[in-house]
Design goal:
Length: about 475
C-alpha cells in the first residue's frame, strides 16, 4: 500500500506509459464532449475561452519544465476543448424545428431512403416547402413514412416530390436518462417527422445532383434483382448500405442473434473489402514479368486498397462505424507505405479523434461506443496474443482459435453497451458469429466484390456462390 502511494511508483509507471500518452488525447477530448451533453444549459463562451487561454499560457510558461506538469495542464485543456467543440457543433447544426402539428402538402427533394420501425418506406427530404410557413419557419429536413398506396413509385435520391401528410416536432426522451431522439434529430437537422397516406407525385427528376446516392440505389436494385427476397436485401445492405429492402422481421432476427453488426458497414466489411482488393492488386502486380524486382507491389496494392475504401465510404453514406473503419484502414495501409506497423492502438486513437471532430454527438450513440469498444478489445487481445506467443494447439488450428477469440472478445466488449442501449443480451451471439464471420470473409464479401466488378457488363449474377 505504501508503494502505491509513493511518487516514485507513479513516476516510474508514467515514464513507462509515456509513448502511449498521445493515445489518451481522444479519451480526454471525449470526456469534454460528454461533459457538454451532461450540462443543463449552454456553457459560457467567455468562460471557455478564458480557461483555454489560461491553460495555453501555463503550457507556454512551463515549456522547459517537468513533463508531468505539462500533462497536468494539457489534460484539462483537452477536456475544455471537447466541451467547446461540442458546443460549436451544436450551434452549427441550428435549424428550424416545427412548433406544432402540421397537416397539408409537403414538398421536398429526396436525400435518403430507408424503412421505419413499422416496416414502411421512409423518405428524408430537404429543400422543404410547407404551406403557410415562411422559409425561416420551415425545417431544413423532414422525414416522412409512406403508409399509402405507392402506385409503382420507386424513390430516387435527388427527385423533387410532393405529398400530403402529417408532421410533428421530434419528441424527447420517454424515460429519464433514456435515448433523447430530439437531440439526435437536432444533429441530423430534422425539424419534422410524420407520415403520409396519399400517393407521391414526382415534380422534378433527379438531374445531376446526388450522383453517389443514386449509384447506391442502383447497385441495391441490381443486387436485389439478382438475389430476390430478403437474401438480396441483405446483400444490398452489405454492399451499398441501402437498408430499404430489409423488413422488420429480418432486422429483429439479426438483432436477437447478435448479427445486426453485419448490416453496419464497419471494420469487418471495410477490412474484408480492402483486404481482398489489396491481395488482388498485389497478385496482379506480381504476375507481371519482372515486377518483383522493379515494382513495389505491396505499396501499389496498399494505394489501391485505400482508394477502394474511400469509394466504399462515399458509396455507403458514411455512418460512424464506416468512418472509423476507413480511418483505421487508411492508417493501416498508410503504415505499409512507410514500412511501419499497421495494427496498433495509435490507429484506434486517430480514428476516434477524427470521428469526434466530425461528429461530436456520435459519442452518445451505440454505434460509436460498440464499434470502438470491440476494436479496442480486439487489438489489445491480439497484441497480448502475439507478445506471449500463445499456441496451445497445433499451428494449423490457429486461424480457428483466432476467429473464436475474436467473436468472444468482441461479444464480451459490446454486450454491456448493447444491454444498456437496447435492453437485450444475445444468447447465441458467439455461435452465430463463429458461423457467419468466416462466411462473410471467405464467401460473401469476395462474391460481392466480384459481382460489383461484373456489374458494368450486366454479369453480376456471376459473382454469386451457391
Amino acid at each position: 500500500m505504501t508503494r502505491l502511494l509513493s511518487m516514485a511508483f507513479w513516476g516510474d509507471n508514467f515514464w513507462q506509459q509515456k509513448p502511449r500518452l498521445p493515445d489518451w488525447a481522444p479519451v480526454l477530448f471525449a470526456v469534454g464532449i460528454a461533459v457538454y451533453f451532461a450540462l443543463a444549459s449552454e456553457p459560457s463562451p467567455v468562460l471557455l475561452f478564458a480557461i483555454i487561454a489560461l491553460n495555453l499560457l501555463c503550457l507556454t510558461l512551463c515549456k522547459n519544465r517537468d513533463a508531468i506538469l505539462k500533462i497536468a495542464i494539457a489534460a484539462p485543456l483537452l477536456v475544455v476543448l471537447g466541451v467547446g467543440w461540442a458546443n460549436i457543433a451544436a450551434l452549427y447544426k441550428t435549424a428550424a424545428v416545427l412548433k406544432y402539428h402540421y397537416y397539408g402538402p409537403i414538398e421536398g427533394r429526396i436525400v435518403k431512403v430507408d424503412r421505419s420501425a413499422s416496416d414502411a418506406l421512409r423518405l428524408t427530404l430537404d429543400r422543404v416547402v410547407l404551406r403557410q410557413l415562411t422559409p425561416v419557419q420551415t425545417p431544413e429536413r423532414v422525414r416522412v413514412s409512406l403508409h399509402g398506396p405507392l402506385l409503382n413509385f420507386k424513390p430516387v435520391p435527388g427527385e423533387t416530390i410532393m405529398l400530403t401528410g402529417h408532421l410533428s416536432p421530434p419528441a424527447g426522451a420517454v424515460e429519464p436518462s433514456g435515448f433523447d431522439f430530439r437531440r439526435h434529430a437536432w444533429f441530423l437537422r430534422l425539424g419534422g417527422l410524420g407520415y403520409s397516406r396519399t400517393p407521391v407525385v414526382v415534380l422534378a427528376p433527379a438531374g445531376h445532383a446526388m450522383a453517389l446516392a443514386r449509384a447506391r440505389m442502383l447497385i441495391s436494385t441490381r443486387v436485389q434483382a439478382a438475389l430476390p427476397g430478403q437474401l438480396g436485401a441483405f446483400a444490398a445492405t452489405v454492399l451499398s448500405g441501402d437498408r430499404s429492402g430489409l423488413n422488420a422481421k429480418t432486422l429483429q432476427d439479426l438483432r436477437q442473434t447478435n448479427l445486426a453488426h453485419l448490416l453496419a458497414i464497419s471494420g469487418l466489411h471495410m477490412g474484408l473489402l480492402t483486404g481482398f482488393i489489396f491481395a488482388l492488386l498485389r497478385l496482379a502486380v506480381l504476375s507481371l514479368p519482372g515486377s518483383a524486382r522493379h515494382w513495389p507491389a505491396k505499396k501499389i496494392a496498399a494505394c489501391g486498397a485505400i482508394l477502394a475504401g474511400a469509394f466504399y465510404l462515399a458509396l455507403s453514406g458514411g455512418n460512424v462505424a464506416t468512418e472509423r473503419a476507413f480511418v483505421m484502414a487508411f492508417v493501416g495501409f498508410g503504415a505499409l507505405l512507410f514500412d511501419k506497423r499497421a495494427l496498433s492502438l495509435r490507429s484506434v486513437s486517430v480514428a476516434a479523434f477524427l470521428v469526434l471532430l466530425l461528429r461530436p454527438s456520435a459519442l452518445l450513440g451505440p454505434g460509436f461506443q460498440m464499434s470502438f469498444a470491440a476494436t479496442l478489445a480486439l487489438i489489445t487481445v491480439y497484441t497480448i496474443w502475439c507478445k506471449k506467443r500463445w499456441q496451445p494447439w497445433p499451428k494449423w488450428t490457429q486461424p480457428i482459435w483466432m476467429v473464436l477469440m475474436s467473436s468472444l472478445v468482441a461479444g464480451l466488449a459490446t454486450a454491456p453497451i448493447a444491454a444498456a442501449h437496447f435492453n437485450m443480451v444475445s444468447q447465441y451471439g458467439l455461435l452465430a458469429n463463429l458461423i457467419s464471420v468466416p462466411l462473410m470473409g471467405l464467401v460473401i464479401m469476395p462474391a460481392g466484390v466480384i459481382g460489383l466488378m461484373l456489374m458494368p457488363f450486366e454479369l453480376e449474377g456471376g459473382g454469386r456462390f451457391g
